[in-house]
């Protein structure tokens, strides 16, 4: 009996080095079209899907009975993507149990299969074998029959997915409580359920040369500008990458400028916001596997609106919009203004307040700029840590980081109480910004304004503001100025976009989108006025 308490030195393993043998890993069988010989088709399928090495690929041989004749056949599915019960009911049972059924005379075998034996509603008959095999990766069933030079792609998708649920990041009190999920056709159905218009187009495209991720470009024919549709289609189809899995991957490839902090494509998980954008004349991109839909073009003011703004009465919407604009201002300038006033422009502070500030800071060893930057970085660390940890620990982390450490820092004279107040205000206002990516840009720009204020006071803030505005005014999103309709000014839509107007006052679509229907109506109106004269 081996003594387990005796020490035995570990066996030295051979050194391993990753090398490339340079051999071609592509399929050895070179086929383009489906062969009449079923053995050749099966060999191509097995080499393509690495059968039997692939454990989730199912290849099933069976016989097809048509009248008094029988034919060898096989199908291939991906276990977990195709529904097994549907395969049994729609493929195996019709072919194996209906051998005594009456078959129309004079019909070819492929016509008999599609017209009399397969009960599934979506069937594609293709002569090329590679597209049929590619459909298996999307949950479809590929069927091959002896003596036929065509194959059948049968829609039997049935993988597990998340149902339609409440949006996680755009919750509202008033309005619909439906959100997109990771299923492409579920998302397109949610859009079409709201926009019940035959002109609504869901144009199918594939993203990634190897991932072949399914996507749809949604627009309303006759409303959305054709140049916008062509540009969206061109950018999506000319992405030279192997893999695109989510809409956020696609966003980085098709946006106009990737180095500007401000996002140029609007992302939402609410079907009602996408539908309203389509009606206005925008285009939407729905990507399979992503619960967020991209809306283009997007302007600066689109990121300051919430879904609930459209469902509130006019006075309430105006009040919330003003509060949101104030929050954006404080997020950017509160910390910078505090540094500029305390370091360069003390004459703007009342004497009693100035004495209180100096008394609160007389034991702090750091300048106000260093103090604010330290607290801003600490706040960002706490915010990022709260997102990454589990929910119960996140609540504890907020209490420990926000209260205990802040209070301890003040008592240890590392920071002043007024710095805690300023940083708390800027952090609180950053949470009011509706768009997650838009709030990120303000979190980044806040440090630029702080550095400008520390370097030159108000002059430094104005310098950073001038550069920031120059970049925003030169930015475009799919041919539309990012600051529309404020600059260039559009008198018909500027006030409505900046604040809010009642729904019954929104009689026209935004002019900067140049919708086709508005141009037709304007042309008819001009022709009518000309005839009237």
Structure description:
- The protein is globular and about 105 Å long.
- It is of the alpha+beta class.
- Helices cover 45% and strands 12% of the residues.
- The chain starts with 37 loop residues before the first helix and ends with a helix.
- Helix 14 runs antiparallel to helix 15 (458-474).
- Residues 522-533 have low confidence and may be disordered.
- It has three domains: 38-154, no CATH class; 184-298, no CATH class; 317-481, no CATH class.
- Strands 1-2-4-5-3 form a five-stranded antiparallel β-sheet, sandwiched between helices. Strands 6-7-9-10-8 form a five-stranded antiparallel β-sheet, sandwiched between helices. A two-stranded antiparallel ribbon has the order 11-12.
- One of its GO terms (cellular component) is membrane.
- Keywords: Membrane, Transmembrane, Transmembrane helix.
- One of its GO terms (biological process) is spore germination.
- It comes from Qingrenia yutianensis.
- This is Spore germination protein.
Strand tally:
12
Distance between the termini: 114 Å
Topology order in helix (H) and strand (E) letters: HEEHHEHEEHEEHHEHEEHHHHHHHEEHH
Radius of gyration: 32 Å
Return the structural class.
alpha+beta
Strand content: 5-15%
Sheet with the most strands, sense and barrel status = 5 strands, antiparallel
Strand neighbour order, sheet with most strands: 1-2-4-5-3
Shape: globular
| Count of runs of 4 or more consecutive helical residues | 17
Helix proportion: 40-55%
Summed over residues and divided by their number, the pLDDT gives a mean of 81
Number of domains: 3
Unreliably modeled segments: 522-533
């Amino acid at each position: 009996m081996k003594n387990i308490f005796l020490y035995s030195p570990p066996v030295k393993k051979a050194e391993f080095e990753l090398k490339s043998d340079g051999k071609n890993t592509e399929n050895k069988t070179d086929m383009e079209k489906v062969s009449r010989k079923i053995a050749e088709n099966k060999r191509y399928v097995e080499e393509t899907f690495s059968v039997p090495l692939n454990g989730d690929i199912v290849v099933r041989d069976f016989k097809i009975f048509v009248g008094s004749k029988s034919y060898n056949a096989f199908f291939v599915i991906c276990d977990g993507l195709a529904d097994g019960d549907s395969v049994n009911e729609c493929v195996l049972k019709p072919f194996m149990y209906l051998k005594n059924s009456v078959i129309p005379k004079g019909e070819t075998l492929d016509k008999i299969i599609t017209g009399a034996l397969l009960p599934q509603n979506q069937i594609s008959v293709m002569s090329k074998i590679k597209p049929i095999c590619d459909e298996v990766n999307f949950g479809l069933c590929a069927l091959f029959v002896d003596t036929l030079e065509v194959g059948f792609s049968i829609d039997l998708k049935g993988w597990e997915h998340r149902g339609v649920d409440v949006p996680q990041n755009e919750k509202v009190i008033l309005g619909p409580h439906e959100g997109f999920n990771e299923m492409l056709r579920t998302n397109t159905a949610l859009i079409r359920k709201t926009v019940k218009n035959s002109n609504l187009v869901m144009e199918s495209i594939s993203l990634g040369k190897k991932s072949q991720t399914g996507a749809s470009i949604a627009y309303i024919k006759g409303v959305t500008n054709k140049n916008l549709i062509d540009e969206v289609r061109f950018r999506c189809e000319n992405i030279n990458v192997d893999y695109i899995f989510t809409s956020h991957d696609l966003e980085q490839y098709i946006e106009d400028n990737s180095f500007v902090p401000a996002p140029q494509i609007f992302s939402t998980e609410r079907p009602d916001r996408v539908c309203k954008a389509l009606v206005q004349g925008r285009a939407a991109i729905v990507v399979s596997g992503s619960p967020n839909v991209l809306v283009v073009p997007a302007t600066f003011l689109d990121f300051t609106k919430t879904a609930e703004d459209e469902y509130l009465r006019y006075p309430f919407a105006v009040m919330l919009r003003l509060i949101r604009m104030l929050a954006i201002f404080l997020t950017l300038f509160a910390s910078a203004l505090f540094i500029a006033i305390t370091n360069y422009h003390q004459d703007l502070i009342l004497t009693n307040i100035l004495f209180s500030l100096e008394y609160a800071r007389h034991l702090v060893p750091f300048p106000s700029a260093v103090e604010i930057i330290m607290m801003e970085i600490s706040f960002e660390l706490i915010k990022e840590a709260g997102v990454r940890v589990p929910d119960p620990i996140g609540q504890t982390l907020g209490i420990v980081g926000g209260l205990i450490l802040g209070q301890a820092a003040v008592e240890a004279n590392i920071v002043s109480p007024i710095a805690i107040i300023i940083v708390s205000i800027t952090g609180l206002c950053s949470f009011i910004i509706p768009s997650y990516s838009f709030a990120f840009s303000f979190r980044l720009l806040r440090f630029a304004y702080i550095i400008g204020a520390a370097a030159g006071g108000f002059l430094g803030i104005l310098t950073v503001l001038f550069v920031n505005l120059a970049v925003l005014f030169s930015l475009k999103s799919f041919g539309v100025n990012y600051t529309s309709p404020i600059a260039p000014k559009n008198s018909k839509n500027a006030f409505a976009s900046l604040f809010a107007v009642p729904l019954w006052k929104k009689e026209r679509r935004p002019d900067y989108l140049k919708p086709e229907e508005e141009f037709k109506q304007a042309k008819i109106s001009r022709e009518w006025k000309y005839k009237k004269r």
